[in-house]
Amino acid sequence: MQGNKKENQQNDNRLVTVAIHTYEKAQILKTILESEGIESVIHGINLIEPSIPGSVRVRIKEIDLQRALRVIEQVDFTSKTAEDEEETEETNKEILIPVDFSDYTLLTCEFGFKLAKDLKCSVKLMHAFFTPFYPAAMPFSDAFTLPATDKDLYHDVRKETESEMKALNAKIDEY
What are the backbone angles phi and psi of residue 35, rounded to the nearest 5°? Predict the structure, then answer.
C-alpha cells in the first residue's frame, strides 16, 4: 500500500511540458500560471540566443495539468505588440545608388532608376569614395591615431564632390 502511495506521489510531482515558446512568451506564460496558483518552471533556456522560437519549455506538475490547460486556452499570444505594429506601418521605400563619378556611374544609375520604377520606390544617390583623411591600411601593431585633417583639403574635396554631383544630376535629367 505504501509503495502505491509513494508511486502516486512521485507521479504527482513529475513535471510535464505544457508549452514550448520563445523565452519572452514562456516567461509570460509562467507568470500567468503562477498567478493562478500553478507552480511552473522554465526549462531549456538557450542563453546564447534566447529568442529562438521553440527553444524554451514551460513545465508544470502533472497534477496541475487540467487546471493549467484551462488557463492556457485563455491566453492569447497572437495579439499585436508595439513592435509588430511598427513593422506594419508604411515604410518609405528607397533605392540607394552609390556613385563615384567613374565611367560606370551612369550605368549604375540607369539600373537603379529602372529597379526603382519596377518596385515603385524613390531614389537616393550616395557619393561613395575613398577618403584621403584616414589611412587605407593600418598594421595591427600600430596604435590608431587620426591624422590632423587639413581644413582646406576637406573643403576642396567637398566643393569638387558637390560640383560633380550637380553635373551627374544634369546628365540624369537628360535621360
Answer: -70, -20
Cell digits for 131? Answer: 577618403
Q: Name the nearest CA neighbour of 124 among 63, 169, 60.
A: 169
pLDDT tens-digit series, residues 117-130: 999 999 998 888 76
Domain positions in the chain are 2-79, 94-174
Beta carbons of 102 and 130 less than 8 angstroms apart: no
User: Containing H/E element for 116?
Assistant: helix 105-119
C-alpha cell at position 92: 518609405
Q: How is residue 17 written as a grid cell?
A: 511540458
Domain at 2-79: CATH code: 3.30.70
Whether the CB-CB separation of 56 and 22 falls below 8 Å is answered with yes
Confidence check: pLDDT of 13 > 80: no
Strand spans (E) along the chain:
15-21, 40-43, 56-61, 94-99, 122-127
Torsion angles phi and psi, residue 40, rounded to 5: -140, 160
Residue 6 phi/psi, 5-degree rounding, is -65, -40
Give the predicted TM-score (pTM) of the model. Answer: 0.40
